[in-house]
Amino acid sequence: MNIELTTSPSAGDAQAISRGLVDFNQRSVEALESPSEAVGFSVFARDDKGNVTGGLRATCFWNTLHIELLWVAAESRGEGLGSTLLAQAERFALEQGCERALTETTSWQSKPFYEKAGYTLMATLPDYPKGHACHFMTKRLAEGTTGADAGPAAA
User: Across the strands, what pairs with 103?
Assistant: First the structure.
């Protein structure tokens, strides 16, 4: 057997890994949602000139809202914009059949913001990046408040 490490795998090789895992998962869990059924989406906030002043990028997959990133421009923080973006994403996720949300945030970002929106800490990875921490957070979407109900917060 040959072992190869590469920083530029061919599309076919990368697909072989993905396909192998998808096939394994679908054999292991009856009626498991296929990765092709994932719904990626974004929520944008724009100023009067159409400039993006905040946004959220996420995916609905395996009955879960996966929040990839949420950003609000410095001049728009503290006005509830982050909470509004989050609430919109959560409503959309509920419409897609999601029951929970997952996100990660670092120690200098938005842990208090997510906590205020009803997210709870699942785990913390210390020293990621060095000198900081990464927090993994979750929320049951059918329970509790949405981000908009949590009040103004910096995101």
Answer: 67, 137
> Helix, strand or coil for residue 87?
helix
Beta-strand pair 120-126/133-140 = antiparallel
Contact 24, 34 (CB under 8 A): no
CATH of the domain at 45: 3.40.630.30
pLDDT band at 22 (very low <50, low <70, confident <90, very high): confident
CA–CA distance, 128 with 134 (Å, rounded to integer)? 6
CB 101, CB 64: distance < 8 Å: yes
98 closest CA partner among 68, 146, 59? 59
Whole-prediction pTM: 0.82
The tally of domains found in the chain comes to 1
What's the CA gap between 16 and 11, in Å, rounded? 9
Sequence-distant (6+) residues with CB within 8 A of 42 are: 55, 56, 57, 58
